[in-house]
Amino acid sequence: MLSLALAAIVAGTPTEMRLLRNADIYGDTIVFNYASDLWVMDRKDGQARRLTSSLANETYARFSPDGKRIAFSGNYDGNVDVYVIDTDGGEPKRLTFNGSPDLVLDWTPDGKIAYRTPFNSPTQRTASLWIVDPKGGQGTKTV
């Protein structure tokens, strides 16, 4: 369903915007990955605004349940970690520090961030589900 909505939105935009990836929708606002940065766009006016601009790659962006924050995976320091940023922009806050690649999956109903990581797994090919509070603190393995 998300793919159909994005196809309808992107149909009238310039060709280069058809490369958007990993989109998420909250109300009329869309967050997506384009050219290794995160962008937000209002469906009504179709104007995209860059949310992040760094040499790092930011991806897997997901809106919080209230739409005020966006969790994403980014490799600012050479490792893919979980970050959170306000939907209006600002400085991303790093939430994971374990040295393994941490990929954001979504937000839990109670406002925590679910992510997948091979941290503390027998092999780097085995990933587990973890939860971290967007305010910070130690992540918790759930499965």
Report strand order across the widest sheet. 1-2-3-4
- Give a quick account of the main beta sheet: strands, pairing sense, barrel closure: 4 strands, antiparallel
**Tally of alpha and pi helices:** 1
Report Rg. Answer: 15 Å
Cα shape: globular
H/E topology pattern: HEEEEEEEEEEEE
What distance lies between the first and last C-alpha atoms, to the nearest angstrom? 28 Å
- Say how many strands there are: 12
Helix content: under 10%
Q: Structural class, judged by helices and strands?
A: mainly beta
Strand content: 35-45%
Describe this structure in words.
- The structure is a single chain.
- With about 140 residues, the chain is mainly beta.
- The protein contains 1 helix and 12 strands.
- It has one helix at about 1-10; strands at about 20-25, 30-35, 35-40, 50, 60-65, 70-75, 80-85, 95, 105, 115, 130, 140.
- The strands form 3 sheets. Strands 1-2-3-4 form a 4-stranded antiparallel sheet, with no helix packed on it. Strands 5-6-7-8 form a 4-stranded antiparallel sheet, with no helix packed on it.
- The radius of gyration is 15 Å and the shape is globular.
- The two termini are about 30 Å apart.
Describe what is shown at a glance.
The chain has one helix spanning 2-10, and strands spanning 21-26, 29-34, 37-42, 48-50, 58-63, 69-74, 81-86, 93-94, 103-107, 113-117, 128-132, 140-141. With 143 residues, it is mainly beta.
